């Protein structure tokens, strides 16, 4: 599951380079991380949250083989909740070879291998204390959020007050991409964002990525 190249079925798997997140990286087949299509063996390594985020960014930037649109859809699926991830794969006609996101095949037979550490976080991060709860930012601030749609190359960056409601964000996005607001569904942290909710109450901060899906009329 550590492979990360796109390849064809005929290609020798032994030629596929292995991803190394740390010398002490270890997977635990008897423990499961994630759920649904994002279920994988749990894993552990001496890595901080920042280091893992950097490694993940490097992974996506270095994808040079396979179809670019497929890679973008896979990235969106990896970053979405399990139900949304499944919808993305189905819409792009991407097959799961192992029942989860680790080995995927597009409609041209190209295989895309995704490391476990890209899909789920480790059992524990190095040098990070556990917090009982997240703190809601109750200060009124102007923030920029990135709205990401599967299969679309560029995120839409929207500037908005953190005290605005989701409904306002949805309308702004709809206006930018020339669709009806009723077509827009926004997701963050694996959950759909409801119109009446205040952005700050959903922990929406400057720079966060929000997934969007458009419904057909």
Automatic annotation (TrEMBL):
Transmembrane segments: none annotated. CDD domains: Ubl_ubiquitin_like. Residues 141-217 form the Ubiquitin-like domain. It holds the Pfam family ubiquitin. InterPro entries: DC-UbP/UBTD2_N, DC-UbP/UBTD2_N_sf, Ubiquitin-like_dom, Ubiquitin-like_domsf, UBTD1/2. PANTHER family: UBIQUITIN DOMAIN CONTAINING 1 PROTEIN-RELATED. This is Ubiquitin-like domain-containing protein. It comes from Stentor coeruleus. The lineage of its organism: Eukaryota, Sar, Alveolata, Ciliophora, Postciliodesmatophora.
């Amino acid at each position: 599951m550590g492979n990360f190249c796109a390849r064809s079925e005929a290609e020798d798997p032994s030629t596929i380079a292995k991803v190394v997140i740390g010398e002490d990286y270890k997977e635990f087949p008897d423990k499961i991380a994630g759920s649904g299509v994002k279920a994988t063996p749990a894993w552990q390594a001496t890595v901080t949250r920042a280091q893992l985020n950097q490694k993940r960014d490097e992974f996506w930037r270095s994808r040079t083989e396979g179809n670019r649109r497929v890679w973008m859809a896979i990235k969106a699926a990896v970053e979405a909740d399990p139900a949304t991830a499944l919808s993305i794969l189905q819409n792009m006609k991407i097959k799961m070879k192992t029942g989860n996101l680790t080995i995927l095949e597009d409609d041209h037979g190209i295989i895309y291998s995704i490391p476990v550490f890209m899909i789920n976080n480790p059992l524990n991060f190095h040098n990070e204390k556990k917090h009982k709860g997240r703190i809601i930012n109750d200060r009124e601030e102007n923030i920029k959020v990135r709205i990401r749609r599967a299969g679309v190359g560029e995120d839409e960056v929207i500037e908005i007050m953190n005290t605005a409601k989701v409904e306002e964000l949805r309308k702004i996005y709809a206006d930018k991409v020339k669709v009806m607001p009723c077509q827009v569904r926004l997701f963050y942290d694996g959950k759909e964002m409801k119109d009446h909710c205040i952005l700050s109450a959903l922990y929406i901060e400057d720079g966060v990525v929000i997934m969007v899906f458009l419904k057909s009329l």
